[in-house]
From TrEMBL, chain A:
Keyword Transmembrane helix (UniProt): yes
Keywords assigned: Membrane, Transmembrane, Transmembrane helix
Record bears the keyword Transmembrane helix: yes
The organism's place on the tree of life at top rank: Bacteria
Protein name: Uncharacterized protein DUF1349
Transmembrane portions of the chain: 237-258, 279-305, 325-349, 356-375, 417-441
TrEMBL record, chain B:
Transmembrane segments: 90-110, 122-155, 175-195
Lineage: Bacteria, Bacillati, Actinomycetota, Actinomycetes, Propionibacteriales
Domain of life: Bacteria
Keywords assigned: Membrane, Transmembrane, Transmembrane helix
Protein name: ABC transporter permease
Source organism per UniProt: Kribbella pratensis
TrEMBL record, chain C:
Domain ABC transporter: residue ranges: 4-229
One term of GO molecular function: ATP binding
Domain of life: Bacteria
Record Pfam families: ABC_tran
PROSITE patterns per UniProt: ABC_TRANSPORTER_1, ABC_TRANSPORTER_2
Descriptive protein name: ABC-2 type transport system ATP-binding protein
């Protein structure tokens, strides 16, 4: 405790360090100013689904009204797409207003039952599909032969609806290349059972006695960053983290290298509280001050800039309060832990310039390389998975959907690791550096 | 000029930094090359992204190393002309980096790197070193200087996609803009550094 | 036991021997001078005492314990190793404050020691602007923080103005009179004159002399006589013939002849003389005598 107070006195009594931490906080708070002025442009806001998430909602649909209960059964005899899209979809759908439930055959992922854009459940890889509405419940079933059926999922969906056959085909993603794709599906003639009102099939379809042939493009599902490039993710509002990080790295390094340069380390160590404890107290004070300043800044910055950006009419990807809190606390934690990393590396190397460079190169550079367009995505993934730059994952507020192929790159705001796992990678590096620093401090003559 | 060369030669860190430059550049290029399907010039040169960091450290230390030890007073007492001191430092660092860069790019040439690209890479590293010398003379403290240089290099490409006018940032930032703009940065830093040298 | 005790310390750096069996004790109630030429191993010894460096062999005890095992060491040993060990942007007062806080002491004690060393007017200025003399005073204040029974200062007179040197001598004497053990290193014996009661003279990593100052001077003074004369050549010739040894130094210094013998010889030869008195060697002379062959870096004679 005495040691903590002493280290805090040391920290606060060098005006440059305090200014550095304040500057880092201000960078987080104010840096988004540089993003203003371009304006959101004339791009329309994306379509949102029943949950408020942005969605893709384009597909081919051959349908007829369904007011009450009813059942529709079909066999998908062929599904192919120009680009061999694994998520090309053909199947049955019941749609009521903005909600829907659908069961489908896919290009490479077997039978799926999906509803309301976000939800997805896998079934067997078969060809026969059936949707049954009974009461308010829609049941999706799949079958290999049309006689023995397996239930895939059940969805609550009542009210007047349109039901029928649909085909969709999202763009094909290879690395960061996106290619438009079109799917063609051949269905058997759908068998209807139950109280279907008298009506004709509506929609674009080539009909024969054997069945229907349909083509379709687009997708039914959650929209990702590459679908809504003008949309703002909350992580974008914290991009002042990068300049702040460099400032904090400089402060953290100086806190220890100046002790060596001016010989103050001899005083610190001869005050006799145990060398490792001196290091830990220093790390605690630095991390505490950084965390407090950065948390204040990010907790102010996120709501403030969200208001500003929304006020300008830009679309903001929705994020729950917990995700926002995680991004804010996580940003402060990234800065605080990186500061301790800088402190440890500074103690190991005892030279300011080399220590600052080392820490910046292992934290900021991998992120930069991950953004570089000419590098393959595997490199980008690797850079943000095994280096301390993985920690920026705590700023991810976008959701990654397994049922949607997209450009899930750090540049788009998607990280390969889960937020806390990313932070844990940084913690791991810092713990190792701190341990090495402690051992060296114990052993070395000063 | 000879004196500056002697100072650099007798500082043990310099040789290490150049060695690190070579290792980092070659290793990163090789790693990226292995991961990429095609091994084009751009991919080969991605190693320069990391390799420029030790070069920047070298440039910074040539100046700020003298500030931290107080040697700068001796230097300025021996050669009172600030412009001469700065020019000598910049020139020595530039020549050393150029020689090492050339040696390094010979390896690259053997691996299929094109000559103009290799020449650009060497020039780039030289200019980065000179920029670092200038920045270090402006801010004196080595940690702040290297932080500024690395910030100047690495931050614009990260931040550009998010600011209002990405083109403007990319065309002005030292790392992305191209050699003429980088030359302007380096000369500007040297000039301001000369005025701030004391 | 309130003393600093060093026994058989040995330390090598690569091929050079820094300490070669250094042994001495600084006892309470007196100022112990720790003198030797630069490179004799004084600073290394002090760093080992403080546990900053490890000795290859031997041990150093403060108040009977190794320094690194003391709980609040600044309450046992106050030390000043390097007065320049300051962050230049931190004020002198804050420098003392953090040091005090490591020992659980507060601002009151800090202000007391600042007053004691006479830095009250500048204590809130940043240390980067301090003169070397002010830094020495700040370092001494730091050594006093824990009100320790033993005090160890490395070259505290460096950079001090004459007024400061007089003050520091008196101050250190008063600390010793309070019963503390005070160890003060210097490469200039003259700085310790009139202050140290006891000196440990070292050279090449070992102790050359460890003795009371009065005894040391007496041993070197021997049977010397200082005199003045208007005919130095004739006097020198006559005294040498009588078996004496004559050196010219601010008059003449004669060895191997007692004062009565000199008077007899000169009177017999009818030579003029005045101010005949036994010569009292300075501490400096004693030191030069002792360290003559222990100096590592000696200027070539001009």
């Amino acid at each position: 405790m005495n040691l903590l107070r002493a280290e805090f006195t040391k920290f606060r009594s060098v005006p440059g360090w305090v200014r550095g931490v304040v500057m880092a906080a201000l960078l987080i708070l104010l840096f988004p100013v540089t993003g203003l002025g371009g304006g959101p442009g004339d791009e329309p806001s994306p379509v949102t689904g029943p949950d408020g998430q942005p969605v893709n909602n384009s597909y081919s649909f051959v349908h007829r009204p369904l007011t009450g209960d009813g059942q529709i059964t079909v066999a998908v005899s062929k599904l192919s797409s120009e680009q061999d899209g694994p998520w090309a979809k053909a199947g049955l759908m019941v749609r009521a207003g903005s909600r829907y439930a659908a069961i489908m055959v896919t290009g490479g992922h077997g039978v799926r039952m999906q509803h309301d854009y976000l939800y997805d459940k896998a079934g067997p890889a078969v060809r026969w599909l059936r949707l049954t509405r009974s009461g308010g419940t829609v049941t999706g079933e799949a079958s290999a032969d049309g006689s023995r059926w397996t239930v895939v999922d059940k969805v609550q969906l009542s009210g007047p609806a349109q039901a029928g056959l649909f085909v969709a085909c999202p763009s094909r993603i290879r690395g960061i290349a996106i290619a438009d794709d079109t799917a063609t599906a051949v269905f058997s003639r759908p068998e209807l059972a139950g109280a279907w009102p008298v009506a004709d099939w509506a929609g674009s379809v080539v009909s024969s006695d054997a069945g229907f042939t349909m083509t379709g493009r687009g997708d039914l599902g959650p929209a990702t960053r590459s679908d809504v490039p003008v949309g703002v993710a909350v992580g974008d509002l914290l991009f002042g983290t990068f300049p702040a990080l460099i400032v904090i790295v400089v402060v953290g390094t100086l806190m220890v290298t100046t002790e060596y340069r001016y010989g103050v380390i001899r005083l610190s160590l001869s005050a006799g509280t145990g060398r490792v404890r001196v290091l830990l107290a220093k790390a605690a004070v630095l991390a505490g001050a950084t965390f407090a300043a950065a948390l204040l800044a990010s907790a102010l910055a996120v709501p403030l800039w969200l208001r500003v950006v929304r006020g300008l009419g830009a679309y903001v990807f929705p994020a729950g309060p917990l995700a926002l809190l995680r991004a804010e606390v996580g940003t402060a934690a990234v800065l605080a832990i990186t500061a301790v990393l800088a402190l440890s590396v500074g103690l190991i190397l005892r030279r300011s310039a080399t220590a600052v460079t080392t820490v910046v190169v292992v934290t900021v550079l991998p992120y930069l390389l991950a953004l570089t367009p000419f590098l393959p995505p595997s490199v980008a993934q690797w850079m943000t998975r095994v280096t301390p730059a993985a920690a920026f994952a705590v700023q991810q507020t976008l959701t990654r959907y397994p049922q949607v192929d997209s450009v899930y790159t750090p540049a788009n705001g998607y990280y390969p690791l889960a937020p806390w796992a990313g932070l844990a990678v940084l913690c791991g590096y810092t713990a190792v550096a701190l341990a090495v620093a402690a051992v060296l401090l114990r052993r070395r003559d000063v | 000029m000879r004196a500056e060369w002697t100072k650099l030669r007798t500082t043990p860190g310099a040789a290490w930094l150049l060695l690190v430059t070579v290792i980092v550049t070659v290793a990163l290029s090789a790693a990226v090359c292995a991961a990429a399907t095609t091994c084009g010039t751009k991919v080969l040169l991605s190693g320069v992204y990391a390799g420029q960091a030790p070069v920047a450290v070298l440039g910074v230390l040539v100046v700020s190393g003298e500030y931290s030890t107080g040697l700068i007073h001796t230097t300025l007492a021996a050669v009172p002309s600030r412009a001469t001191v700065m020019a000598a430092k910049a020139l020595v660092v530039a020549v050393v980096v150029a020689v090492f860069g050339t040696a390094m790019s010979l390896v690259g040439l053997a691996e299929g790197l094109e000559l103009p690209a290799a020449a650009r890479a060497v020039t780039y590293l030289v200019l980065i070193a000179v920029l670092s010398v200038g920045v270090a003379a402006v801010v004196h403290d080595s940690a702040v200087a290297i932080g500024s240089v690395l910030g100047l290099l690495y931050l614009p490409p990260i931040l550009a996609p998010l600011v209002a006018n990405p083109r403007v940032v990319e065309e002005l930032a030292p790392m992305t803009a191209g050699l003429p703009v980088l030359t302007a940065w380096s000369i500007g830093a040297l000039l301001v550094g000369t005025l701030r040298l004391r | 036991m309130t003393s600093i005790e060093v026994a058989e310390l040995r330390k090598r750096y690569g091929g050079t021997t820094a300490l070669d069996g250094m042994t001495f004790t600084a006892r309470p109630g007196r100022v112990t001078g720790f003198v030797g030429p630069n490179g004799a191993g004084k600073s290394t010894t002090m760093r080992i005492i403080l546990g900053l460096q490890t000795a290859d062999a031997g041990h150093a005890l403060v108040c009977g314990q190794p320094y690194r095992s003391l709980r609040c060491p600044l309450r046992s040993l106050g030390s000043l190793l390097d007065a320049s060990a300051l962050h230049p942007a931190r004020s002198g007062r804050n420098h003392l404050l953090w040091l005090a806080q490591t020992q659980g002491l507060g601002t009151r004690r800090v202000d007391e020691v600042i007053e004691q060393v006479g830095l009250a007017s500048v204590s809130r200025r940043t240390a980067g602007g301090y003169s070397l003399g002010m830094r020495q005073r700040l370092g001494i204040a730091a050594a006093l923080l824990g009100d320790p029974p033993t005090i160890m200062l490395d070259e505290p007179f460096n950079g001090m103005d004459p007024e400061g040197i007089v003050w520091l001598r008196g101050f250190l004497r008063s600390l010793a009179e309070q019963g503390r053990a005070v160890l003060v290193s210097s490469h200039l014996m003259s700085e310790l004159q009139d202050m140290a009661e006891h000196v440990v003279v070292v050279g090449r990593g070992r102790v050359i002399a460890d003795s009371n100052v009065a005894e040391l001077i007496a041993a070197v003074s021997g049977d010397r006589v200082r005199m003045r004369t208007s005919a130095p050549e004739a006097v020198a010739a006559a005294l040498t013939a009588a078996g004496g040894q004559v050196v010219e130094a601010d008059g003449l210094v004669v060895r191997r002849l007692a004062a009565e013998q000199i008077v007899a010889v000169l009177t017999a030869n009818g030579l003029p003389f005045s101010e005949l008195a036994p010569h009292r060697a300075t501490l400096e002379e004693a030191y030069l005598d002792l360290t003559g062959d222990a100096v590592e870096y000696r200027g070539a004679p001009a």
